[in-house]
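Write out the bound-state structure for zinc ion.
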Amino acid sequence: MWATGGAIGLACLLAATEVFAQPAASSSGRTIENIIAEQAPAAPKSPAGPSVPVVLSARVGEQPDRTRFVIELSDPVPTRVFTLTNPDRIVIDMPEVLWRLQGPDRPSGTGAVRAYRYGLFRPGDSRFVIDLNKPATAAEPLILPPEKGFGYRIVLDLFPTTEAKFAAAAGWPADLRVKEAQAERVAAIPAPAAPAAGQPAPQQKARVVVIDAGHGGIDSGTTGVDGILEKNVVLDEAQRLKKALQKRGYVVHLTRDTDIYIPLRERVNIARGYQADLFISLHADSNPDPNVSGASVYTLSESGSDKEAAALARKENQSDVIAGVDLSGENSPVASILIDLAQRDTMNRSSHFAEDAVSQLSQATDILPREPHRAAAFVVLKAPDVPAVLIELGYLSNAHDCAQMGTAEWRDATAQAIAAAVERDFGPPAQPVPVASQTPE
Ligand code: ZN
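---
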């Protein structure tokens, strides 16, 4: 499966001094052993156990004829490198690793590398994505053994090429396409079986709410003025909202309960698989104007209520591109007329909940002063049969919003407000569902 072939065990000819002509300050004086020892307490948290390789640093070296990319690890790992277009990028896949980069080297932006990002892509698989400024071909990655206080290093050289050659070589490896398709089928959880004959039918089906913490893993979302990451804020908020809703007797599922990326259409499939009565996607916004602040609630619309909402939808829909997800299966022709009919009722219900959410949130936090309920074409809201809203909890680019979003009090208060909106919309459940019978925390 993994292209371990020539790369690993190849005692490489490159001199380590060439790779690390100027070792970064963060690595000086630290040996590989004590770096790993420092990280040891974090290791058992990983589902893959304590033997998971640790990524220690990443560097970009811009040279006249090439750009050299170096990832330093505690252990050698097999890698697979492929390229994708639109936007042009290089994807490095490896087994699950722990990311412990200290102040990673950032590219100047003027060479071949515009930016890069990394994270857990799905359980067992980690991914590193390099965004390119100009087309480049990647040479076969080399693995250097530990030396002079450095750990194992994956060395990837990028050479300039033409757009036509880049496009011709780009594309998804066939087995990965299959893997993504399988993951999607797994996400489409079968509907719960109807009660067997003879069993008393429940008075009323318990209401099911699916909460979606936006972004995750390789996709951090927006970064707050104090460095806080959207993916972490919304995961914590999702967990608080889950508890608040369970206390009120609803059945609650999360699309993710760890720092992992889930493709947008898979999030939609999870909601449909659980036959959710409501899907709530949680996000935090950012704006170039640091004065813009307040929460806002979005519903689905193809036309969009205004330019700002449309721009926000484009930004949130970029998640899959950021994580390097295969989008080639998108836009498959579907029975659009049927979906339109189902969607009309779904959209009415979504809007109804959005109004309740705005009204409840306004009692707990600041609300965007102008039109706090807007609509745009968010991919994650596109289930035809599940009412869905996307809540931007506030602006991480605003100092006041960012500071309050960092507190447990604010997160609890907004979680309670959203839960109150759910109750106002659905009414209390006919049969309270014991929390113990629901999915584990
Ligand atoms: Zn977001």
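---
Residues 214-215, 221, 230, 283, 316 surround zinc ion (CB under 6 Å).
The two ends are 33 Å apart (CA to CA).
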